[in-house]
Amino acid sequence: MGADPPSQTTASRGRAADVCIWFVSILFFLLLLAGGAMLVLYMVLPETSTTMWFPAAGMILVGIPWAFWIMTCFYRFMSWRAPHDDASPAAASAPPTTNK
Question: Where do transmembrane segments lie in this chain (predicted)?
């Protein structure tokens, strides 16, 4: 009763089934579309006091996904370089056992 049906095993679901990945991908796509639209509107519309902030907003919106991926790569690089300690914190704080 607790076992998954064969069609719902972890191997068959894969990464595409993870809702978080879809959410982040769609969010980044929308940010890129909005940023691109702001930059196009800046080039097409005449310069006024209301369109003056379009290039800054467009660059920020386009830059958010870039910043995320650069920080992710930096984090992965730093976690790969960090020494790994095999002892868990719980095991380190537990009192030693004595055999009598």
Answer: 21-45, 51-71
Domain boundary assignment for the chain: 15-80
Secondary structure letter of residue 15 according to DSSP = G
- The dihedrals phi and psi of 64, each to the nearest 5 degrees, come to -60, -50
Query: CA–CA separation, 39 vs 55, rounded Å?
Result: 6
Would the pTM of this model clear 0.90, i.e. be above it? no
Encode burial over 40-61: b for 16+ CB neighbours within 10 A, e otherwise. Answer: eebeeeeeeeeeeebeeebeeb
Please check whether residue 58 is in contact with residue 45, taking contact to mean a CB–CB distance below 8 angstroms.
Answer: no
User: Mean pLDDT score of the chain, rounded to an integer?
Assistant: 81
Signed CA dihedral, 52, 53, 56, 58: sign only: negative
**Distance of alpha carbon 84 from alpha carbon 74, whole angstroms:** 17
Tokens of 26: 């769609």
14-36 core/surface letters (b: 16 or more CB in 10 A; e: else): eeeeeeeeeeeeeeeeebbeebe
